[in-house]
Specification:
This protein is an alpha/beta fold. The chain has two domains: 157 residues, Rossmann fold; 56 residues, DNA polymerase, domain 1, CATH 1.10.150. Helix content is 35%, strand content 21%. The chain has a seven-stranded mixed sheet with strand order 6-5-2-7-8-9-12, covered by helices on one side. Strand 5, helix 6 and strand 6 form a beta-alpha-beta unit. Helix 1 crosses helix 2 and helix 3 crosses helix 4.
């Protein structure tokens, strides 16, 4: 199976940066602080901005204040972050002007994680603080496409969460999901599902980008 496009927009956590352990620890600590079930919280916040996740699982709290506290704690986190499998090779094979990152993390958090994972600075970075509505709303992906000067339907989005896949599809993008944080069945609404970015082979010519999917479940 192959997918063609003019540009690629990547989610950050779980797609480019292996940060699952840090994210789960932070949300588990937050859930216990508010006497909430950590499993319920984790099931409902993945892929969303802090404010949106908190509003979903604890609407009686001040989501903005809680999100600011979580962001401060994350900024102080000294844990090492690793690139996800296949991320460095794929990014290094892309022309600089054809890719972006659209993340539910704050801009400062995203920049720190990219740096600590040893990944290149994206030519376009769209973060939680750049839009009014986070995933599953399409705003992050629509803004990324605009910054890349591309129509959304000529972009491929890479995601690892159901909320992220929905956001990209609502923006009109083809979506490839990676099963780093969610089971294949939870991501079955994506265009294709792969275990990791290492399952992709990129071809680039004057007509655009072609991604050959070496092992995938097409939908």
């Amino acid at each position: 199976m192959s997918v063609e496009a003019q540009a690629i927009v990547f989610d950050l956590d779980g797609v480019l940066v292996d940060s699952g352990g840090v994210i789960e620890r932070r949300w588990t600590q937050w859930a216990k602080r508010h006497q909430l079930d950590p499993e319920f919280v984790l099931q409902n916040v993945h892929g969303k901005r802090f404010t949106d996740g908190i509003a979903t699982v604890a609407p009686w709290l001040d989501a903005k204040a809680e999100a600011e506290r979580l962001a401060q704690e994350e900024a102080q986190d000294q844990d090492a972050f690793r690139p996800c499998e296949g991320a460095i090779a794929l990014l290094n094979s892309l022309p600089n002007e054809v890719w972006a990152v659209a993340t539910s993390s704050a801009r400062r958090t995203a920049q720190l994680r990219l740096s600590r994972a040893g990944l290149p600075t994206p030519p376009v970075l769209t973060a939680a603080d750049d839009v009014n509505y986070g995933k599953p709303a399409p705003d992050l992906y629509l803004m990324s496409a605009k910054c890349l000067d591309q129509r959304p339907d000529r972009c491929i989005a890479f995601e690892d969460t159901p909320a992220g896949v929905e956001a990209a599809q609502r923006a009109g993008m083809q979506t490839i999901a990676v099963t780093t944080t969610h089971a294949r069945e939870q991501l079955s609404h994506a265009t294709a599902v792969v275990p990791s970015l290492a399952n992709l082979q990129l071809e680039n010519d004057c007509f655009g980008l072609s991604l050959n999917i070496l092992s995938a479940q097409g939908v």
